[in-house]
Amino acid sequence: MQVPTQTKPAIIGALVGAVILAVVGFGWGGWKTQSAANQMTNQRIIAVLTPVCVNNFTQQANATEKLAEFMKISSWQRDDFISKGGWATVPGQDAPRSGVAKACADALSAAKTS
């Protein structure tokens, strides 16, 4: 099959334009893939819910004793302690959101050492 000679430059121009559009859009235009957008959303949700978790922890009646118990636990088990304590569980949910317990544990550790 023969392609007319006038069609070849149009096809090449369309392909080059598509590549330039993708490079400019994703590079400078701020376009995001779905996975990148999901990751950014999860990071922002964790950032919003972490202060709620810290507040839940510090507002309990025996916060001083729980904080002392928390600080005695090894750092890699602290997020489990926070999850099991229910402080990372947002009202209306049955379980803590992934990542909130770790961020909460990190925030509590940083606050205690400051």
From TrEMBL:
UniProt keyword list: Membrane, Transmembrane, Transmembrane helix
Transmembrane segments: 12-31
Name of the protein in its database record: Uncharacterized protein
Species of provenance: Chelatococcus asaccharovorans
Phylogenetic classification of the source organism: Bacteria, Pseudomonadati, Pseudomonadota, Alphaproteobacteria, Hyphomicrobiales
